[in-house]
Amino acid sequence: MNQPNGDTGAGWRATAAAIFRAATEHGVPARSLRLAVVVGTVLNLINQGDALAAGAGLNWFKIGLTYVMPYLVSTYGAVSVRMELRRARTARP
Fold first, then answer.
1. Domain of 77?
2. pLDDT for res 73
3. Is the residue at 56 inside a domain?
4. Could you please report the per-residue DSSP string of 33-73?
5. Whole-structure pTM over 0.85, yes or no?
């Protein structure tokens, strides 16, 4: 199916594949996970520390999100840098 601008989607698929490769390259997932554990724990203590200390019920959805978001932000930063470096390498004469 053709896109309105005449693109068949091949360019988009190639870009998506490059982003996926950059997000799963050596070091990116592990680094993002370590950062998410540290940042997520600190944020959870800030956001739900009073409930934890009082023995009240915790919002597990919020706890999960508080770990997922730093992981995604860290991965996005790493992917952005890697994609920019690839563009710079291919733009050289």
1. 10-91
2. 97
3. yes
4. HHHHHHHHHHHHHHHHHHHHHHTPPP-HHHHHHHHHHHHHH
5. no
